[in-house]
Amino acid sequence: MPELPAGIERIAKTVAGQYALLLLLDGYPYIEMTARKHADYLSDLGMWKRKTHPSLARSQVRFFTLAPSGEIKELTFNR
Question: Contact at 8 Å (CB) between 77 and 53?
């Protein structure tokens, strides 16, 4: 697995203590959404996958999830 991009590590520090979906879109890090509660994060993530994810099909993008503990994991979504 590729190592964690420095931009993702830096941007994750700005939303510490929350759940967050982070994107590395064409080399630029973005905070796509945040939530304080895990249930809210999962609900929002489901809506995001239906509405927004298809629009990223032509982009070079990597997805990461941030836990309130600060742990960052890379995600893979099926198209």
Answer: yes
